[in-house]
Sequence to fold (261 residues):
Amino acid sequence: VDSRQFAAFNAFPAAQRVTYKFYVGRLAVFDENYQEARASLEYALQHCHRAAQRNKALVLKYLVPVQLLLGHLPSPALVAAHQLHQYEPIIAAMRSGDVKLFNNTMDAQQFRFIQEGTYLLLEKLRYAVFRRLLRKVHAVHAKLEPEKRAQIPLAQFQAALAMQGLELDMDEVECIAANLIFRKYVKGYLSHKAKIMVVAKTDPFPPLDTAALAD
Amino acid sequence: ASAEDPANAALWEQDWDDDNIQDDFSQRLKAELQRQMQQQQQGAGK
Fold:
């Protein structure tokens, strides 16, 4: 379809363009190609007939998780306009780094999200929530010990998780921290011996859309 | 006018991911980490 011999994309009726982009977007989600998924689904949303609320809801069902993964939160207006309330606790968890709220929501809404085909996609947000929490720990730690701001004791991350009701032992905390680094959610390295995470002095938490999101 | 709807373009929030620690949880976290540091200092002093 992208071939130059093929008729120009804009020569097709809007309805066909929207349908095409919707499926290209969904396919890109399966391929873990989230930037392309976002572009295609956004096109579908923006060019969808303004009265076609059901189709818009269909597009948003996939676009919202993709946008969350890339660090773009739907505004309250968007949530209200399209009845996206099932995502509200997920959005709140991402914003505040509340791992407990995220886990509880995924448990409580598991059936619904599986039915909607978005469960596995939303599962991927867990590391974004961990990252957000670690970022808070980093910010608080930087305030308390400015000269050691780049060295976050893992015990502090563990304490933050425990405050949310997640009692994890040090190996589990280290595992999460290692995954955050591996997935490029954090720039830094672990000192297994000292139980410290050393993070980059500049921009230790790159924007979410630069993380390694594919498995 | 076109039947397509461009009105949804700017409905995504991108500037939420900051280092603001004014919220309630961060304040409690701060208190907890302070407590942890004091304990460590006491432990090291013995």
